[in-house]
C-alpha cells in the first residue's frame, strides 16, 4: 500500500526502491523479495534495507540486523543517531536526524514491513513504490521520470534496483490456478469480516485484505496458517489508527512468548527500555506507533536473564556502572 493508501499487489522477487526523497536522497529504503517456498507463485519479503549516509542497515529474518555487512545484536545504536530495537515481533529502525516520526519496521514472521516519514520535510517529496506522500492517490504510480502509469507491473519494475538484486531475481510469474486444497482453511479469512474487526472496518476498507488473505490461501502448499499474514497486516493498520483489536486465539495465529512472565499485547509500546534508562518517561523512549508482540510488565525490563524490575533511583545512584544494553557502533 502506498503512503496515500493505494493498495496494489505485485509478485516481483527482486529488490525495489520503497521510499526516498525526490530531490536529495538523504535516505533510501529498499525491499528485497524472494520466492515464497510455502506459497508457490508468490513472493515474501526477505529483508528491508535502509541506507543513510555511510551506513547500510539490513533488517532481516529472525530479527537479524546487519550494519555495513556486520551482523549485530539489538538494540543497535549508530553514532547516537541510527537506532534499531527489537520490539515485540518487529525490528524498528529510527533516525534521530530525520525526526521522531521517521520509522522503518520489519516483521519477518508475517512478512510485514512499513515505512513512516514525517510530513515536514517529506510532504510531496518522496518517490518509490510507496509513491509521493501528498494525499493525492492519482499520482501514486509515478515512475522515475515523473510520468504516471496505471500499469502496476510497469510501475514496480521501474523501481527495480539491479545492483542490489540477487541471482534468483526474475519477472513475476503469471498467476496460477488454485489447487483443490485452497478452500480448506480460507474460511478463516472470514475473521476479517467478523464483529472483531467491525470498529476498524468503518475506518479502513477490509475488502482488500480479505482478497489478499484468499490469495495467500489459494497459493499455499499447506493452507494451515495461510490467513495469518493478511489478518496481521490489517490489525496493524487498525492499531495505527488507535483501534486495538485483540484477535489472536489458541487456534488462530497464536504467538508464544519466550519468557513466562511476558505477555502478548497486540498494541504494545515499541520502546528501547534498558536498566539504565527505564526510569525515564516512556515518551522519551517509545515510538508513537504501537507494535504487536511479547512484553514484560510495565515496571520491568527485558534483559538476557528475562524480565527484571527497573532499578530504583537509590539503586542507580549506588551502581553508576549499570551495564548499558545498547550495542554501540
Report on the structure:
- With 329 residues, the protein is of the alpha+beta class.
- It is built from seven helices and 17 strands.
- It has helices spanning 119-122, 152-158, 183-186, 198-201, 207-219, 228-240, 313-318; strands at 15-21, 27-35, 43-52, 55-60, 64-67, 70-72, 76-78, 82-87, 90-95, 103-107, 112-116, 126-127, 263-271, 286-295, 300-303, 306-309, 327-328.
- Helix 5 (207-219) runs antiparallel to helix 6.
- The protein starts with 14 loop residues before the first strand and ends with a strand.
Overall 3D shape = globular
Distance between the termini: 33 Å
Question: Count of DSSP helices?
Answer: 7
What is the typical, i.e. mean, pLDDT? Answer: 85
Radius of gyration: 20 Å
Layout: helices, strands, pairs:
Elements: E1 15-21, E2 27-35, E3 43-52, E4 55-60, E5 64-67, E6 70-72, E7 76-78, E8 82-87, E9 90-95, E10 103-107, E11 112-116, H1 119-122, E12 126-127, H2 152-158, H3 183-186, H4 198-201, H5 207-219, H6 228-240, E13 263-271, E14 286-295, E15 300-303, E16 306-309, H7 313-318, E17 327-328
Parallel strand pairs: 7-17
Antiparallel strand pairs: 1-2, 1-12, 2-3, 3-4, 4-5, 5-6, 7-8, 8-9, 9-10, 10-11, 13-14, 15-16
Helix pairs in contact: 5-6
What's this entry about, in short?
This protein is an alpha+beta fold. It has seven helices and 17 strands. The strands form four sheets. The protein has a seven-stranded antiparallel β-sheet, with no helix packed on it.
List keywords for this structure.
seven-stranded antiparallel β-sheet
Amino acid at each position: 500500500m502506498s503512503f496515500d493508501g493505494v493498495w496494489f499487489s505485485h509478485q516481483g522477487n527482486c529488490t525495489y526502491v520503497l521510499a526516498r526523497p525526490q530531490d536529495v536522497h538523504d535516505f533510501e529504503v529498499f525491499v528485497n523479495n524472494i520466492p515464497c517456498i510455502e506459497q508457490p507463485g508468490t513472493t515474501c519479503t526477505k529483508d528491508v534495507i535502509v541506507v543513510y549516509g555511510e551506513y547500510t542497515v539490513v533488517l532481516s529474518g529472525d530479527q537479524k540486523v546487519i550494519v555495513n555487512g556486520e551482523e549485530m545484536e539489538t538494540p543497535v545504536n549508530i553514532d547516537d543517531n541510527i537506532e534499531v530495537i527489537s520490539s515485540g515481533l518487529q525490528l524498528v529502525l529510527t533516525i534521530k536526524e530525520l525526526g521522531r516520526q521517521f520509522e522503518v519496521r520489519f516483521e519477518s514472521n508475517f512478512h510485514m514491513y512499513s515505512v513512516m516519514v514525517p510530513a515536514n520535510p517529506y510532504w510531496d517529496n518522496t518517490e518509490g513504490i510507496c509513491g509521493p506522500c501528498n494525499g493525492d492517490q492519482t499520482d501514486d504510480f509515478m515512475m522515475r521520470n515523473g510520468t504516471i502509469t496505471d500499469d502496476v507491473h510497469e510501475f514496480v519494475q521501474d523501481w527495480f534496483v539491479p545492483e542490489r538484486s540477487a541471482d534468483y531475481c526474475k519477472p513475476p510469474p503469471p498467476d496460477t490456478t488454485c489447487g483443490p486444497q485452497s478452500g480448506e482453511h480460507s474460511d478463516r479469512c472470514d475473521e476479517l469480516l467478523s464483529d472483531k474487526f467491525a470498529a476498524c472496518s468503518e475506518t479502513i476498507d477490509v475488502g482488500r485484505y480479505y482478497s489478499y488473505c484468499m490469495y495467500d490461501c489459494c497459493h499455499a502448499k499447506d493452507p494451515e496458517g495461510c490467513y495469518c499474514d493478511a489478518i496481521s497486516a490489517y490489525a496493524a493498520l487498525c492499531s495505527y489508527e488507535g483501534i486495538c483489536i485483540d484477535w489472536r486465539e489458541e487456534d488462530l495465529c497464536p504467538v508464544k512468548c519466550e519468557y513466562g512472565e511476558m505477555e502478548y499485547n497486540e498494541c504494545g509500546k515499541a520502546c528501547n527500555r534498558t536498566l539504565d534508562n527505564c526510569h525515564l518517561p516512556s515518551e522519551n523512549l517509545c515510538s508513537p506507533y504501537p507494535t504487536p508482540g511479547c512484553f514484560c510488565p510495565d515496571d520491568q525490563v527485558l534483559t538476557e536473564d528475562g524480565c527484571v524490575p527497573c532499578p530504583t533511583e537509590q539503586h542507580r545512584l549506588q551502581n553508576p556502572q549499570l551495564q548499558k544494553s545498547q550495542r554501540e557502533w
